[in-house]
Amino acid sequence: MITIKTEEEIQYIKIAGRIIAEFLKEVQKLIKPGVDSTEIEAFAVEFVRSRGGELSFKNYNGFPGYICFSINDEIVHGVPMKGKKVPENGLVKIDIGVKYKNYFADGAWTYIVGNVPFKVQKLVEITKLALYKGIEKAIEGNRLSDISKAIENTVKPYGFGIPRDLVGHGVGYSVHEPPNVHNFHNPPDDEIILKEGMVLAIEPMITLKSNKTIEGKDKFVIKTADGSFSAHFEHTIVVRKNKAEILTSLDDYSGF
Predict the structure, then answer these.
(1) Residue 89 belongs to a domain with what CATH number?
(2) Using omega within 30 degrees of 0 as the cis cutoff, is the peptide bond preceding 80 cis?
(3) 50 alpha carbon, distance to own chain's centre
(4) What are the distances in angstroms from CA 97 to CA 18, 33, 125?
(5) Which of 16, 74, 154, 161 is the most buried if burial means most Cβ atoms within 10 Å?
(6) Residue 254 has what pLDDT?
(7) CB 210 within 8 Å of CB 164
(8) Looking at the 3D structure of the chain, how many domains does it have?
(9) Could you tell me if residue 255 is inside a domain?
(10) Which residues contact 240 (CB under 8 A, 6 or more apart)?
(11) How far is CA 245 from CA 30, 115, 165, 202, 236, in A?
């Protein structure tokens, strides 16, 4: 069942979202070649707890990490582990969920490290653009498919891949809730009419080439089947009458 959050509940989700936004900005300072993923994970634990929140991914469906740390061809659900480091030239994707007073928010960002080919830079740029194009459609009276179509229509002209098995989702009372938020038009599942107070995690996960994915050896990380790079951006938003409200944002996006 898709739930409608009250304004009081949305304020708690917004606090969780603010913690995420502050973390995703601050962690940039740590994302340098050779830095171990466990160091970044430890920073996340300390950062979130210092602000009164809890990290929500640990042990969710057996996931062993506090955050998702994915690099290059890893699309999502990368597990931080000793020896897994920030690449010298490549992409780092950090996905983080935070619980604040039993309310949840979710967010992710892609960071370019060193020098990457122009087409990889473009992949990151277009994936981020697709996120905001999708958010623009998250208004009351639209359909869920309007979000999905906006993302797909932003990505398709560039020939990038859109994995079919990875989706956004509802969020707020738990880490994942209905509905699935596809990054491609998927009738009839996404013909749900949006209502004010729905809280969604919109998250384009886009690949440089193929939309086919494979499971990593650890059974958690999802990778591109062809080994090509991928990008991932995510915001938690609340559907409003005229313009969606982003709950995982700082007031100012400069440099972030």
Answers:
(1) 3.90.230.10
(2) no
(3) 22
(4) 11, 24, 23
(5) 16
(6) 39
(7) no
(8) 1
(9) no
(10) 139, 140, 196
(11) 29, 34, 27, 12, 9
End-to-end CA distance of the chain: 34
Supply the DSSP symbol for 187.
T
Does residue 215 lie in a domain region?
yes
Does 253 map to a domain? no
pLDDT at 63: 97
Instruction: Give residue for tokens 């309007």.
Output: 146
Which three-class secondary structure state does DSSP give residue 224? strand
Per-run averaged pLDDT (10 residues), the chain, 256 residues: 96 97 97 98 98 97 97 98 97 98 97 98 98 97 97 98 97 97 90 97 97 93 97 98 94 44
Q: Is 16 helix (H, G, I), strand (E, B) or coil?
A: helix
Residue 209, in any domain of the structure: yes
Q: Which domain covers residue 160, as residue numbers?
A: 7-246
